[in-house]
Amino acid sequence: MACQQPGTLVRARCEGARRILTRTTLALPHRAGRAPARARGLRAQRRVSDPRQGDPEEVVAFGDRLYPPALRYVYDPPRQLWVRGALAGQLDALAAPAIAVVGSRDATAYGLAMARELGRGLAEAGLTVVSGLALGIDGAAHRGALEAGGPTVAVTGAGTDVVYPRQHGALRGEILRRGALVSELPPGTPPLRSHFPRRNRIISGLSLGVVVVEATLKSGSLVTARHALEQGREVFAVPGPARAPRSQGPHELLRRGARLVESVDDVLAELPPGIARRPQPAGAPAGGPGLDDEDARILEALGAWAPTPDALVARLGIGVAEVLRRLVALELRGLVSRGPGGRYAVVASVASSPSSGTAHARGGVDSPDGDR
């Protein structure tokens, strides 16, 4: 990425990368390739097990060959990481390409649907989804990745044996079976408020980029985005409704040069070639396969008119959260577009296709300023 590109965010990313190269040399806790004594001691007894829960756990120290390489050269890297779950037995999986998806705990139905679809799409593209296991956007991103059968990594602000938040007990169990919980804090450490800002640097450090979905200007998600810039990672933001408090964070990032994300393809397009596979081959038909009866009903209704989600709920008798989830999914697949006033329409190529099931063709609605 050229440092001559315009935009304060882009310049900050380049300048931050130069600063990190200098600061990291001074800050790394080793000399001449040797890990510190404490790290060598930890490395000598990496294998840990929890007799109470039976979950495999490893502790990997800075300087260990299995320490995640993405974290090795960031400023203030964790001295050690506790890794619990399925990936504890294959720590090299933490070196796999990953994208972080973070956002508001008090998320809207739209934000939850977007986070879930992004998590699913990233996992289908062969990427690990990293987040913080918090309520709201984090949990939705983890669930999307698990639904696609991909691994997901939850970086916690407590010991990996601590169930927090309690509402995510079942989700935590699923992550342990198919991914990992990661923390720089030893087992038994409670979830103190001061732990969470520091864990954010690990979320960004493990990732190629960070996607922010809904956040206020004081959100910890913007702290994660700032760490990403300092670490030379990409920053992405999903736009939302104008003047909505949870849109202020992503919109501020966009004003400063973050990459705009309306679908998972916007993230994949910024990654180096060969890093991710496309969920859908180029040239494949957008409609048809994978559509269930409810999707077909929505497409048929949209083909006849350009309603708002509320109008679709009243017309089709489907819950509002389900309608929003399906509309976002259809939009990510290129089947519908969102226009002014929050109205949805079938895109022209789908409306004219015999397999789309829409009796009345209607062109797509351009939405340069849409509040996705």
Give an overview of the whole structure.
The chain is built from 14 helices and 12 strands. It has 372 residues and is of the alpha/beta class. α4 packs parallel to α5. The longest helix is centred in the first third of the chain and has 20 residues. The N terminus and C terminus are likely disordered.
List the helices and strands and how they pair.
Elements lengths: L7 H20 L9 H8 L2 E3 L6 E6 L7 H4 L7 E5 L13 E6 L5 H16 L3 E4 L5 H11 L4 E4 L13 H10 L1 E4 L11 H11 L3 E5 L6 H11 L3 E5 L9 H8 L3 E2 L3 H5 L24 H12 L4 H8 L3 H13 L3 E3 L5 E3 L1 H4 L21
Parallel strand pairs: 4-5, 4-8, 5-6, 6-7, 8-9, 9-10
Antiparallel strand pairs: 1-2, 2-3, 3-7, 11-12
Helix pairs in contact: 4-5, 4-13, 5-6, 7-8, 12-13
Q: How do the SSEs run, as a string of H and E?
A: HHEEHEEHEHEHEHEHEHEHHHHEEH
Radius of gyration in whole Å, from Cα?
22 Å
Largest beta sheet: strand ordering: 1-2-3-7-6-5-4-8-9-10
Main beta sheet: strand number and arrangement? Answer: 10 strands, mixed
Structural class: alpha/beta
Q: What value does the average pLDDT take?
A: 79
Intertermini distance: 27 Å
Number of helices: 14
Low-pLDDT segments:
1-6, 17-45, 279-289, 348-372
Overall geometry comes to: globular
Q: Could you say how many structural domains there are in total?
A: 2
CATH class of the largest domain, named Alpha Beta
Estimate the helix proportion, in percent.
25-40%
- Would you tell me which CATH topology of the largest domain applies? Rossmann fold
